[in-house]
Amino acid sequence: MGASVPSAGVACAFERLTLDRLVNPANGGPFDPESLTEDYEVGLRIKNMGGRGVFVRMRDRAGDLVATREYFPDSLDGAVRQKARWMVGISLAGWDRMGWQGGFAEWWMRIRDRRAAIAAFVLFAAYVAFVLWGVLLVASWFGLDALHQPSHLIEMLLWLNFAFMAWRIAMRAVFVGQSYGWLYGLGAIPRAILANLIAMLAARRAVFLYLDSLFGKPLVWDKTQHRFPQL
C-alpha cells in the first residue's frame, strides 16, 4: 500500500543504519522521550525519511510463532490506564506531533489509528441505543406503542453493520484459537464486550488528559504493571 507500518514496542526490530538515521542529538537517541508512544512514532518517522517497514508473521523451526508474549494488565484500572496512554499518544497528542503526511494510503492508515477515541464514544452511543431499544421492546409487550418499525434503509444498514461485527468477532476467535487453542478462541467472543468497556473508559480518561495538556499540564508516562507467561 505504500503506507507506514507503526512500530509495536518490543515486538519490532530495526536495521542498525535506520537507527543511526533516527538519532536526534536533542533526545540522546532514536526515540523521543516526550512522546507517550515513542515506538509507534518511530514507524511513522521511518516512512517520513524514505524508509519502509514490513509486518512479519513467521514461525521457528519448532513451528512456534515468533512473537513477544506478555499479559495485558489484568485489572480494570491498569487496562484503562494502559489503553488511555495509547489513545493520547496516537489519537490525540500524536495528531499534533506527527500531523498528516504522505498520500491517500498514509492518510488512511493514520485515520484508522487516530479514530480510536472518537470510535469509543460512538460505541458508547451504540450501547445506549441498544439498551433503549430493549426498553422500548419491553414496553411494546405491554401494549404501549413505543417501538416503531425503522425505514428500509435503516434496517438494511443495521443488518450490514451486524454482518461486519460478526465477521470481525469471528476473525478474532479464529486467530486466537489458532495460537492458543479453541477454548481461548471461543472466549474471545464474550471478551469483546469487556474490551469495549475498557475502550470507552480509556477514551474518557484520554480526552481529559489531553485537554489538561492543552492548558499547560504536561503529559506524563503512565506506567502499568505487565506480567509475562511462563514459556
TrEMBL record:
Keywords: Membrane, Transmembrane, Transmembrane helix. The chain crosses the membrane at residues 118-144, 156-175, 182-203. Residues 2-165 form the Glycosyltransferase 2-like domain. It comes from the Bacteria. This is Bacteriophage N4 adsorption protein B.
